[in-house]
């Protein structure tokens, strides 16, 4: 990690972090989709995978305003969230319970992403990075929308798990 003397330095570091996080998520989402038994949940994971691919491209574009190269760093928070999800997916659970657990695991990821994109949007505005603000704001909006979708989906999934 390099020394952060300015908000621009912190922005660049955090951008590298979310870039790494999204790339980790690209590898994790197919595993979660494969474990899901609800067709609706499988579809949600597959749609989020496609959405994440577009978000990665937007992050790459957001790097342009920093004047620095596109660079990824390992996101320890996402590593932990994915590790937790992988451990849970190995548990011996009824299919309906597994789906409920998967929704919960994915919502943890969404909340992390929402917090990070919110911070990056605030910082990009303060730094005058208008293009980055717009790109990252779009990612933030998608993450918030996905979280709301998962909340609605959890009502149905949880009802099946509780039957």
Task: Provide a short characterization of the protein structure.
The protein is an all-alpha fold and 163 residues long.
Shape: elongated
Total beta-strand segments: 0
- The poorly predicted ranges are none
Classify the helix fraction into a percent range. over 70%
Mean pLDDT over all positions? 94
Structural class: mainly alpha
| Run of helices and strands | HHHHH
Residue fraction in strands: under 5%
* Assembly state (oligomeric): single chain
How large is the count of helical segments?
Answer: 5
**Radius of gyration based on Cα positions:** 17 Å
Biggest β-sheet: count, sense, barrel?
none
> Ends: how far apart?
49 Å
Features:
mainly alpha, 163 residues, elongated
Summarize the topology:
Blueprint: H1 7-35, H2 39-62, H3 76-90, H4 95-127, H5 130-161
């Amino acid at each position: 990690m390099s020394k952060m003397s300015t908000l621009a330095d912190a922005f660049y570091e955090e951008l590298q972090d979310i870039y790494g996080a999204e790339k980790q998520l690209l590898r994790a989402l197919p595993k979660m989709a494969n474990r899901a038994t609800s067709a609706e949940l499988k579809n949600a994971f597959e749609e989020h995978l496609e959405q994440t691919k577009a978000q990665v491209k937007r992050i790459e574009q957001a790097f342009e305003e920093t004047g620095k190269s596109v660079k990824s760093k390992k996101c320890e928070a996402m590593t932990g969230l994915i590790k937790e999800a992988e451990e849970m997916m190995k548990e011996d659970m009824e299919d309906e319970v597994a789906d409920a657990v998967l929704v919960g695991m994915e919502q943890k990821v969404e909340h992390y992403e929402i917090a990070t994109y919110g911070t990056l949007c605030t910082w990009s505005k303060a730094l005058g990075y208008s293009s980055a603000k717009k790109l990252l704001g779009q990612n933030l909006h998608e993450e918030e929308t996905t979280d709301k979708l998962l909340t609605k989906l959890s009502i149905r999934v949880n009802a099946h798990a509780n039957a």
